[in-house]
Design goal:
Length: about 850
């Protein structure tokens, strides 16, 4: 017979306590397997541990070997010894089972259950959850596993979570979502959204199909072609909707959306099952269950007060009088002054859990007349002592989150001294590491109620900067570049994301530590991470004009930073301002031919967009004087020859030689390893034998779409050819969205030479959302003109004119206005614009010949 579940559950708790892990999920099983091997000398695979901790569904029971090894790891001789010492006498059956008659009565007694519940509660980051159908307090993992059982049950479709505000519905759904992502099932899709977003979609009625037709014209006559790109039929849809009550009082539209979604998926035969998990504050949804197939009234969890606490809704805390509040503070003060720290921990655990208790204290602070000094001292000291004396498994993340909320919400508690947090973290090795590595987002989530950007929240306070960067695990500040390099190495060892490095960079910049900024780019970060950092820093620098003016020359002259920053410099909305100043500084401090080519190619495209022909010509002429040797990076060379061919064509000369050089260099990028993507001061090189066009996702997509089109077995040959040709036309538009990032082709007839050459404009530094949108709209306008739809074409051209004017792209603004005049057959405006184009030097772009330009 199988081993009774109480034995296994208790052994799971002992293994959790013995390990260094606060919780056990899929990823932790591998770590736990190694820890068991080191401790016992025996090996238990991670897959066995996943079955033991019920992370995967399995009908098998643990073997006697597994139970004995886990018991040894927990500090016992074997499983029989574990049963006897844990208050559960019984002879373990070596076949893996145990007789039910050997289960003692005290195992099922209320006293034992209460004690077991209390032990479990002491180990949780959050307090327990209960269900109205079952009086036992349950671990949150039980609810998550119950959700998985729900998903496997094909008879159910709806899984509601009902509780007032602040009881932990959102946290529970987030935990399930994150756990689901970690498990990564191959045949299930989870969408985590909010009911308010669904409500906006339902009520806005924007006509999604009509919008899509503008982006994929083939949808106008062949929408069913998309069916061939859908997923296979064995998929199941799960909609997780948080905050259903936020959709408003009239929820019929939302439930109609549910009904329509379920019917659509089922009727398509692509998704045989659609399930919905949603949270709500009240039970008013019961009158709408007619929209929910397969729902039974008892299939829901109701969260009791005091679970998973947050402070979304202060109504969940009963109001306290000033006298009651003072009594509470005095009680805490007496305990603190008497150093009765164990008593404090006991009090917290005997109530509703640490996070909820801290939330309660915070709300008391904000809602009573306690003076600020008292609240600061008591609240700050209370958190500090909790951090000192509670085990790490209690939840350092929860304490930190509540501390941040206390520092950013309310009038009185906002005065809590942040320096105390620095002292607390220095006494908890591993806590700061965990916060930086995985939980730094909590600061953004709970600071300023989402009103501020992340960097403004994190480092607007000098003390918080000291906590976030100047403190490291040993409690010592970063006083030198060497300290910074050690911090970076530790962060990389813990697989911290680039977002954490961005926090470090932002903090350094906020405090004007150029020495540390240089050190960051000389650290062990990868080239890719440094490029990502430079892009992130660029966003901040644009908003810090004063800082930029002070340091722009120093940045441009800094050999450790200049390549990472200026190689990713983008044409911003402020062409005459920030972008120009940064480029000019870069050019002033450029020493190598490669840097000079790069800077002047960007300045040339800036002049091109501003319709400044003389400046454009001057930069090309200057690049003509620079020596071109084989050590130069291919990208600046391709840019140079591309712009040179464009200049020759604009002046009526033959661009054939320049175009041949472009073709030669692009061939070299396929055949040679000349793509040295690092700056000139390092020896690191990267093998880039991939053809240049493969860096362009749209060109790859064109090849892929043609391949797909040729395998549509249910299409006739003529339909295949039509679809293929339409795919080429569609994908040409998307090509324009990407070609400026490495190299690309402008396919408009007016930009082709008489010999049929295609002009290359190679520049990886133009803004996707602005330039590419103008190009896409221009192509759409031409497409509608070919379909004899002038009104629609003019609408697209008007959009181009507005976008280009707003972003100082003069050449696109003038091009759109000229095309509008042509479309509307306004001869007077045509002549005005043609004279303006001829005078600018760019007349050939609109088709003016040399005689017309020079006249």
């Amino acid at each position: 017979m199988p081993t009774p579940e109480p034995y296994l559950e208790l052994l799971r708790e002992y293994v959790r306590k013995k390990s260094s892990l606060s919780s056990v999920y899929h990823k932790e099983c591998e770590v736990l397997s190694e820890e068991i091997q080191r401790t016992t000398g025996n090996t238990i695979s991670s897959s066995t541990l996943k079955r033991f901790f019920r992370l995967v569904s399995s009908s098998s029971k643990p073997s006697s070997f597994t139970l004995d090894v886990l018991s040894q790891f927990a500090g016992f001789d074997h499983f029989d010894h574990f049963c006897s010492q844990a208050g559960k006498p019984g002879k373990h059956n070596k076949s893996g089972g145990e007789s039910a008659e050997t289960v003692p009565k005290d195992v099922t007694s209320p006293e034992f259950i209460d004690r077991l519940q209390e032990e479990i509660r002491c180990e949780l980051d959050y307090s327990c959850i209960c269900n109205d159908k079952q009086e036992l307090l349950l671990h949150r993992e039980f609810i998550i596993n119950d959700m998985y059982r729900f998903l496997r049950n094909s008879g159910k479709r709806i899984y509601p979570l009902i509780a007032p505000g602040g009881y932990g519905k959102t946290v529970l759904m987030q935990l399930f979502y994150c756990d689901f992502k970690n498990r990564k099932p191959d045949n299930t899709l989870v969408i985590f959204t909010s009911a308010s977003a669904i409500f906006e979609i339902v009520t806005s009625r924007t006509g999604l199909r009509e919008v899509l037709k503008h982006f994929v014209p083939s949808l106008q006559y062949r929408p069913e072609a998309l069916d061939h790109l859908l997923v296979t039929p064995d998929y199941k849809i799960v909609l997780m909707i948080d905050g259903l009550d936020e959709a408003g009082s009239d929820q019929s539209d939302v439930f109609a959306f549910f009904k329509g979604a379920v019917q659509l998926m089922q009727e398509s035969c692509r998704y045989p099952e659609v399930s919905i998990i949603f949270s709500k504050r009240t039970e008013s949804w019961l009158n709408c269950t007619g929209y929910m197939p397969g729902f039974r009234p008892d299939d829901y969890w109701y969260l009791r007060p005091g679970t998973f606490g947050s402070d979304e809704d202060s109504n969940t805390v009963p109001p306290l009088s000033v006298d009651e509040s003072r009594k509470l503070w005095n009680k805490l003060n007496r305990k603190l002054s008497a150093s009765a720290r164990s008593e404090i921990s006991e009090d917290v655990l005997s109530l509703t859990g640490i996070p909820y208790q801290l939330s309660l204290l915070h709300r008391i602070t904000c809602r009573t007349n306690i003076d600020a000094v008292t609240s600061q001292d008591v609240f700050g000291t209370y958190i500090q002592h909790l951090m000192y004396d509670t085990p790490h498994s209690i939840g350092i993340r929860s304490l930190f989150r509540e501390f941040i909320k206390a520092c950013n919400y309310g009038a009185s508690s906002a005065r809590v001294d942040l320096s105390s947090l620095q002292d607390v973290i220095s006494r908890h090795p591993g806590a700061w590491e965990e916060l930086l590595g995985r939980e730094i987002f909590l600061i953004e989530e709970y600071s300023g109620n989402g009103m501020y950007r992340r960097r403004e929240v994190l480092f607007s306070h000098q003390k918080l900067f000291e906590t976030a960067v100047a403190v490291e695990w040993y409690g010592e500040g970063i006083r030198s570049v060497r300290d910074l390099h050690e911090l970076v190495d530790k962060l990389r060892d813990k697989t911290a994301g680039i977002g954490v490095m961005e926090q470090v960079a932002w903090a350094i910049m906020r405090n004007h530590r150029m020495d540390l900024l240089t050190g960051l780019f000389e650290s062990s970060l990868t080239t890719a991470d440094k490029v990502m950092l430079s892009r992130s820093m660029f966003d901040l620098w644009q908003s810090e004009e004063e800082w930029l003016e002070q340091y722009i020359d120093e940045l441009a002259a800094n050999q450790s930073i200049r390549w990472y920053y200026f190689e990713n410099l983008t044409v911003t909305d402020d062409l005459p301002g920030f972008f120009g100043r940064a480029l000019e500084a870069y050019e002033r401090h450029s020493e190598s031919v490669q840097d000079l080519l790069y800077a002047n190619s960007l300045l040339a495209v800036r002049a091109f967009l501003a319709m400044d022909f003389k400046t454009f010509q001057a930069h090309i002429a200057y690049m003509d004087t620079l020596p071109k040797n084989e050590d130069i990076h291919l990208y600046p060379l391709i840019r140079y020859w591309s712009y040179r061919s464009l200049l020759h064509w604009l002046m009526g000369d033959d661009p054939g030689y320049s175009l041949s050089k472009v073709d030669e260099l692009m061939g070299a990028s396929r055949d040679e390893s000349r793509f040295n993507t690092n700056h000139s001061r390092t020896s690191e090189k990267r093998d880039r034998r991939i053809p240049l066009y493969l860096h362009n996702p749209a060109l790859w997509l064109m090849d892929r779409k043609e391949d797909i089109a040729m395998h549509y077995h249910d299409f006739q040959e003529s339909e295949k050819e039509d679809l293929l040709q339409q795919s080429k036309r569609d994908i040409r538009m998307f090509t324009l969205l990407y070609f400026l990032f490495y190299s690309g082709v402008i396919p408009e007839p007016s930009l082709k030479t008489s010999e049929g050459h295609r002009l290359f404009i190679t520049n990886g530094n133009l803004p996707e959302a602005n330039i590419n949108q103008c190009l896409r709209l221009l192509i759409m306008a031409d497409w509608h003109l070919s379909k004899k739809q002038p009104d629609t074409a003019c609408r697209y051209l008007s959009e181009v004119a507005a976008i280009a004017k707003n972003h100082h792209f003069v050449i696109f603004h003038k091009l759109a206005e000229y095309k509008i005049a042509l479309t509307q057959e306004d001869a007077r405006k045509q002549r005005i614009y043609e004279k303006e184009w001829a005078a600018s030097g760019f007349g050939r772009i609109i088709g003016l010949n040399s005689a017309a330009i020079h006249s």
